[in-house]
Design a protein that fits this description.
The chain has about 50 residues and is an all-alpha fold. Helix content is about 60%, strand content about 0%. The longest helix is centred in the middle third of the chain and has 16 residues, at about 20-35. About 5% of the residues are buried.
């Protein structure tokens, strides 16, 4: 998914229609998709689990 979004961003910067907003959005979302598995999940203490 990130690979496809990256190329959408490249296409919007280099081709027609030239759309900077779509390109930046595609790059940001691709980065979030790649980084999401690297962020640790918050841990719950036994007192907060019901």
């Amino acid at each position: 998914m990130a690979w496809g979004l990256f190329w959408i961003g490249v296409a919007r910067l280099t081709g027609e229609p030239h759309t900077l907003a779509v390109a930046v959005t595609a790059f940001v979302v691709a980065a979030v998709i790649v980084a999401a598995p690297l962020v640790p999940a918050p841990r719950r203490s036994p007192a907060t689990v019901r």
